[in-house]
Amino acid sequence: MLNLPNKKIFEKKRIAAIDVGSNSVHMLVVDMESTNSFTIIASEKDQVRLAASIDENGNLTNEALNKSIVVLKKMKEIADGLRAQIRAVGTSALREAKNGTDFVAKLYKKTGIDIEIISGHEEARLVYLGVQQGLPIQGKSTLIVDIGGGSTEIVVGQWGEERFATSLKLGCVRLTQGFIHTDPLGDDHLRALELYINTRLEPVLSEVERIGFDCAVGSSGTIKSIKSLVLGLTNTPPLQTMHGSTLTAKEIWTAKEALLRARSLKERKQLPGLDSKRADIIVAGLFVLSSITKILGIREWTISLTALREGILFDTMLRDGVWLQGDTSDVRWRSVRSFGQKFHVDEAHAFHITSFAVSLFDQLTFKHSLPSAWREFLRSAAYLHECGLFIGHTGHHKHTFYFIRNASLPGFTTREMQIIATIVRYHRKRMPRDNDEVYCDFDKEIQKAVNICAAILRLAVSLDRGRQGKIQEIIVKENSSSKMSLAVHLRATHDIELEMYEAAIEKKAFENVFMCSLEIVLEQ
Fold this sequence. Notes:
Helices cover 48% and strands 18% of the residues. By secondary structure, the chain is an alpha/beta fold. It folds into three domains: 13-118, Nucleotidyltransferase, domain 5 (2-Layer Sandwich), CATH 3.30.420; 121-306, Exopolyphosphatase. Domain 2 (Nucleotidyltransferase, domain 5); 331-522, Hypothetical protein af1432 (Orthogonal Bundle). The strands form three sheets. It has a six-stranded mixed β-sheet with strand order 8-7-6-9-11-10. Strand 1 (13-20) and strand 2 (24-34) form a beta hairpin. It is elongated and about 85 Å long. The two termini are 18 Å apart.
């Protein structure tokens, strides 16, 4: 393994985390003081109701687009004014709408905010990561439930790792649209709603019961609204903060009785403590929470005010702060290694190639100026580049491309998986063509970055062609603006004729991408 230059583990950052949810769009701007603490600078929230804006063809409407543009432009202006790095994720409504990808592309064009559409499992993971930052649950087996507008995330975690995580299409906006068609509420609709929820919860909750948990945490607007309603119904003064407070099963039944008595929307809006903006969707959200409470026999819930947005913040810090080897807190590197092990990659060779690739990336920063995210994409691609050998040697780069492109790796977005897959696709044979699958969908900047990473990976692979780790160190030197040399140092007095031959072939792609000549020199 190569000795790489040390990297900073932590660097203070100002980050704006934006959650484009199915009900609302939230932004949290913070100063990250350390890897586990932050100071809130600003927060914004607007109700957009994307889940309610999907038409009969499964597409988000132009009205929803225009409303989202207005909201996101305002948030972008605030974040830019505070000089914050923006990271935005989209959840249930965006990942399920047929035009979700196109919708996000239009938002980027109009607002400059690049939204990552995350999977349900990734959303659950980020919720768990966020809750961990706000509550002392590290040593406990904890059930976390987040009832959103389009989906409900259910996680059981312990010691920072998810033992079980899933996302169900049981969001309060979605269920309201599907089952609550009358005002006042109809008994038949309510019975159908409860049956539907129970039917979909029971198989998932049976797995939760099998695993077991010590405490239950609720982290959504739904549970906070129900707690607020209970306080109003019992004439209890508002809490200084709901974070860390509890909602008992008895209080849930109290809230349910009150909501079922207030059959009309007008009556629900007048209930003490209930936010009138949630009066139309609170019944569906409460039914989900009460069903989970009853099925699992939960006596009380702990309320968390930290969830997805805080998960985004700390995941961003983990991405920027963990390097080649990763550590136990780096879910992305664990995901990569776990995926590689499924395909029985040769780890010694994989680590050696990864070392070369990352070392080259670092030494060539003066030429490519790519942000650190690309270092991680390259690292992941280098480690996984031979997964396709699981099927056979012929075309194994294409097999690996398919495997990664269609995988679901915790910690990575769909687009990031496509980028990693594409880098691997071109680690051998030819370099990309403009009309190639997936590659053609990237914008010019991403295509350029993929070319750079692929050229580096090709050279790294050639330098361990014999798979014996003969080369100990590689040093890049800039001889002039149009010429570089690559000094290759041996681990011992080994013969590296094969590696030098292969490197001479692969350097052509490198020279084309970096627009310079490359001389490979053996130094003893």
